[in-house]
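FIELD: query
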Amino acid sequence: MSVRPCSGQAPDGQLSRLVTPAPTLDPAVASQVRTALRQVRALPAVAEATQTTTNTPSSAPDPTCSTRWVTSNHFASRFTVTMDAGATPAQAGAVPTTMATELAWTGVSLTLTVPADEGHIASTVHYDGTFDQQIPTSTSTAVAQGLATLAATPHVTGLEASIPYTMRVDYGSLVIGVDSEDQGVLDRVRAVIDATAFADTTLHGSFGNGAKP
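FIELD: result
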């Protein structure tokens, strides 16, 4: 963040705005992002891993000083990881846990996908702003295990989860599609959900009858 010293009221009564400086990324931060990406790429069953980091500036008048503008930088780093289709829940769970050992900011997000394979559909989980804390292996593996279980459940046709910055899985969301309107099928799918880490998570359904699960 950069500020202009406050020198009293501008002669014309207007704000004298500084030219917004070009955004730069702290070398230590850049190094940690590169290290995290390198560590993820080295994990078993990771097929592809990419990241995009931005540091976008914005300027606004300082409410405490009529002649000063404050420039802020908004850091964001987005990781996108695709696993091998046959990746185990432990292998998928290792990705966010590994990232969290190197990164320590809420500005980091992860989209992690396990592609479809024989016996299961594709699943995707978004970790949003959770990387300012440790992510226990038990938690990340439970999330991956829950998705793997649901991805292999009959009649499930779509699967996407979001984990919030609090790392409270039950405060996140689960979007699940089911290809049947039969209430017995819906009840069986719901029973599977209730046996996973997503038991108390907010559900968004596209069940065959249009109802929430």
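FIELD: remark
The helical segments are 27-41, 89-102, 137-151, 183-194.
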